[in-house]
Amino acid sequence: MDKMDLTPSGVQKDKRGITMQGEEEMGKKSTERRVYTKEFKAEAVALAEKREKPMREIASDLGLNESMLWRWVQATRETTGGTVQVFPGHGRPRDTELARLRKENKALKEANEILKKAAVIFAQGEPQ
Predict the structure, then answer these.
(1) For the whole model, what pTM was predicted?
(2) Where in the chain are the domains?
C-alpha cells in the first residue's frame, strides 16, 4: 500500500498528500493549526485499529504525528459505548460536558443565594 491508499475518502489532496487549512507554500511554516475532519479522524483510527502496519508508519503515511494518532485512538476507546460524540469539533469530549456542568452549577448557586435572601426576608416579617 502506498500513501494514497491509506488516505481516507472525502479529503482534498494535492501532490504532497493532504491539504489542510492554513498550509502555505512548501518550505514555509504554517502559522495556523491544521484542521482535520471528523471523517478523516475516524478513518485514521480505523486504519490504526486494523493493525496491518505499525501506528508510526500509518501516522507517517497520513502526514500525522504518531502522538496525535494515538490520542485519537485513545479518545475513541474512552467514548466507546457512551453517548459522548467522539470528535465533536474543538477540544475534548469531556470539555463540553465539563462546561455544561459548570454552567449548571453556577445557575444553581445563584438560585440558592436568592432562596437564602428570601428566607431572611420572610423570617424578619414573622412575629415571634
Answers:
(1) 0.43
(2) 3-88, 91-128
